[in-house]
Amino acid sequence: MSAYHDLMAFDRETQALGQIAGRLGWDQETMMPRGATAQRGEEFAALEGVLHARRVDPRIGDWIAAIDAGSLDAVGTANLRHIERSYARNTKVPARLASELARVTSMAQGVWAQAREAEDFAAFAPTFEQVVQLRREEAAALAQDTDLGVWDALHQDYEPGSSGAQLDAMFGALRPRLVALRDKIMGADQPKGVSGSFDETAQLALSDEIAKTFGYDFNFGRIDKAVHPFSSGSGHDVRITTRTSATDPFNCLYSTIHEVGHACYEQNISDDYLLTPLGAGVSMGVHESQSRIYENQLGRSQAFTSYLYGRMRDVFGDFGIDSEAGFFAAVNRVTQGFIRTESDEVQYNLHVLLRFDLERQIIAGDLDVADLPAAWNARFEADFGVKVDTVSNGCLQDVHWPVGLFGYFPTYSLGNVYAGCLHQALRGAVPDLDAQLAQGNTGAATAWLGQNLQQFGGLRAPRDTIEHACGFVPSEAPLLDYLEEKFGAIYGF
């Protein structure tokens, strides 16, 4: 076992350095002065150089070869599986490319933010072209000696074992029923929304309260503001961000609940896995299942919104909604809009499907960077029936492509599918769930998720993680059934 112990000790230090890199990213999006962008890029490149050298260290291969895999328990077997997979992938990427990717994507984030603010895609295009070319080079390297296409090779970093072909089939099943549901809703009377001005300090205070309600532990985390809400870290340091709007308090509150879902997954992983390959969420699809079930199936349920309605009236007074039923409908309004992160449950996946198709064209070289705004706008109008008015409402709205996260977007919809399955299983396990949520008590729901999924971290493969928690093979059917039942009741059909 000495080879295994040496391998795990070495990997623990690499995991710790990776956490430091993540903290640099958190700082860049929350606290870092705008003028530090170029220097931060150099810092990221230097740290990525160190990390890449460790991840391709020949001793890893020697240790793996010396380990008797049959002598390992389930945890050891899972650790070895993750390390072997990571080593095989990292040794295909040249150190020069890894450092350059870190430098350029760090710099690109700042350039994107300024171009987005200025509504100027042309100002961002040269930097984005660099990002795309580097990711294409990485994809070609990763696809070597495999049956993977270049986009699938990148996708493996976010959802191991998934493929574009599988996603095509799943999304093909999602799209017709989602479009039909949306069309029914758009033909119905629309519920009233909230009105008035909502104090930012009060929003943030209520946001903190709700984070605690959903189980977020502030002893091991913090909430800050960012343009694009996110969760960062694992183990004993898991930070989240949110954002505020003076006229839309749901932007803040539901961004917080969403990110708390991510953060609680990380906080609830067994301490036995701290700073090991098992000590973080197993995939982005599984991760998104936690954020989406917290935000939607729990946070936007009729039961929980009845509780939230009372708390919001306590904090903000009259905001134009005079009943719990009206508030439930307001929280779940389906309206035309451009922004994915502000989208309702019915249309959210259509935003993701748009990106899924476009990014595969970009990585394959079938869509040039210069042509992206026009391609985006045409596809958006076809899918949503609305012309895009600005690039900040179009292809510059998300930070993912600017920082090179190609292969990531479909995990959002995969997470929604997984959340639908988990919700069905949760309802069976906690029959009085609604009565508890109506009191603002999420304890049984979050405990079930912690016990059946979150504590295991990366122990199992992604789909196996969901199947273990649910007791059945995941499919899109539970999500679609849930959406049709919920929104049919709200809109009266």
TrEMBL record:
Its cofactor is Zn(2+). The keyword Hydrolase applies. GO terms for molecular function: metal ion binding; metallocarboxypeptidase activity. The keyword Cell inner membrane does not apply. Zn(2+) binds at residues 258, 262, 288. The lineage of its organism: Bacteria, Pseudomonadati, Pseudomonadota, Alphaproteobacteria, Rhodobacterales. Belongs to the peptidase M32 family. GO terms for biological process: proteolysis. This is Metal-dependent carboxypeptidase. Its EC number is 3.4.17.19. Keywords: Carboxypeptidase, Hydrolase, Metal-binding, Metalloprotease, Protease, Zinc. Binds 1 zinc ion per subunit. Broad specificity carboxypetidase that releases amino acids sequentially from the C-terminus, including neutral, aromatic, polar and basic residues. The active site is at 259 (proton donor/acceptor). It catalyses: Release of a C-terminal amino acid with broad specificity, except for -Pro. It holds the Pfam family Peptidase_M32. Transmembrane segments: none annotated. It comes from the Bacteria.
